[in-house]
Amino acid sequence: WRSTSSPEENNFIHWLHLILHSTVERVWWGATSFIFLSIHGLKFVFSPDKTKPQRVIWVLAFLLCLSLLFTWSWNRILYLMSYPAVTKIYMVWAHNMSFPAVTFCNKNVFRVSTLTRDDLYHSGYWMDLLYPNHTVINRSLSILKDKMMGRLGHQLEDMLLECRFRGETCTYKNFSTIYTRYGKCYTFNSGLDGNPLLTTLKGGTGNGLEIMLDIQQDEYLPVWGETDETSYEAGIKVQIHSQDEPPFIDQLGFGVAPGFQTFVSCQQQLLQYLPPPWGDCKSTPIDSEYFSTYSITACRIDCETRYLLENCNCRMVHMPGTSTVCTPEQYKDCADPALDFLVEKDNDYCVCQTPCNMTRYGKELSMVKIPSKASAKYLAKKFNKSEQYIGENILVLDIFFEALNYEKIEQKKAYEIAGLLGDIGGQMGLFIGASVLTILEIFDYLYEVFKDKVLGYFIRKKRPQRCQSDNLVIFLSL
Questions:
Q1: Which positions, given as ranges, span the membrane (predicted)?
Q2: pLDDT tens digit sequence for 6-44
Q3: What is the CA angle 384-388-390, rounded to 5?
Q4: The pTM is what?
Q5: What gap in Å lies between CA 341 and CA 335, rounded to an integer?
Q6: Is 70 exceeded by the pLDDT of residue 130?
Q7: Under a CB-based contact definition with an 8 Å cutoff, are residues 149 and 321 in contact?
Q8: For residue 453, what is the DSSP state?
Q9: Long-range pairs, 187-192, Cβ under 8 A, ≥24
Q10: Residue 429: what pLDDT?
Q11: What is the rounded CA–CA span in Å between residue 297 and residue 305?
Q12: pLDDT number for residue 224
């Protein structure tokens, strides 16, 4: 095959090829230089002024820095995906603080002098006062109601000898009644029945609650056997808690003994935890028909109630709800053993998460002996008791804030998206001298290449082409 083109045509084609090649080369070099000038090192890789060994060194250096950048960035991404958290603790001072709820129970559940013949007959087996081989009549099925617990329990108007809050006198009417596993108990500053919460304006003794109690040891049930309803100890059990959570005094309370004045210095702690995946706290509302606010104690009481309903078909008096209250026989044979097993051995049934926001009270206890030799006769005369009775039955409890401040313990996210972007951006600048604008330049260049090469190809393909003879005619006519 032999070309039939004239010398003029061959010269024109050669000239056009040179122009196109030169134009493409200039466009490519200009575009690449525009990008590579923003990334340190690459301009030396493609620079015509560098020798081949120099280019190889610059290629190796650039690849090393690029690998370090990717390694560090991947490490930061893995750290972000581990959802780290830090805990911050700091003190906050306040002008006044809400006083906590104070719940106390006498260690003795029933007063022996108030037990009637029927009480002994129907509940003696439960209290370990009678043998189990007695006949139970039908009316004992509902004998252990709130009324019985309220009637047989220690009455606050008899126990409370003196009461002062912030130096002002208070009475048994400032306490509300609540039932726990210890029977009839009393709460100061519960916030129930629409009563406003009491506040304190100062720290230290004399600026909180101070009560003098008579524990009435003469009314304690005789101990003839081992049972949860009879006590080896004499005194009261106390729990200091938030008004948002019910007392769980048999598990979380501390003891106060007669013959002593016990000082309890409190510090309020506000705890804020993070929900999963950063932490383990529970951020969803409580799924309970008994409580509206989630707390660990509310969760445990709700769980124990459901456990007894499933295993004994009844509930204890202190448990919420309207289900049937356990009879004395059910208490002795099922409820008490089941609840003891649940508390001591079954750790999988009642698993309660920590709430994301909770209030706790740290305590420091100290005590002094009362009465002194100088005050024994005065107190005996004042309360019409013997000096021995005063020493064996009287106690004083003084609860106050150590200072008008509270400790805030807050769990926060240790690493977030902003930190990740900052770390990656810093490493990009350190290793390859790039930034977000460099990335935008790269995307802009890729867009231009895509538009010119891909879209331009389809546009040129759809455009009608002129034949070579037409081009020659036009050229020759020029």
A1: 27-45, 57-74
A2: 666 666 566 556 555 555 554 555 545 444 556 677 667
A3: 55
A4: 0.75
A5: 10
A6: no
A7: no
A8: I
A9: 187/101, 187/102, 187/103, 187/247, 188/101, 188/102, 188/103, 189/99, 189/100, 189/101, 189/102, 189/243, 190/101, 190/243, 191/101, 191/243
A10: 83
A11: 12
A12: 66
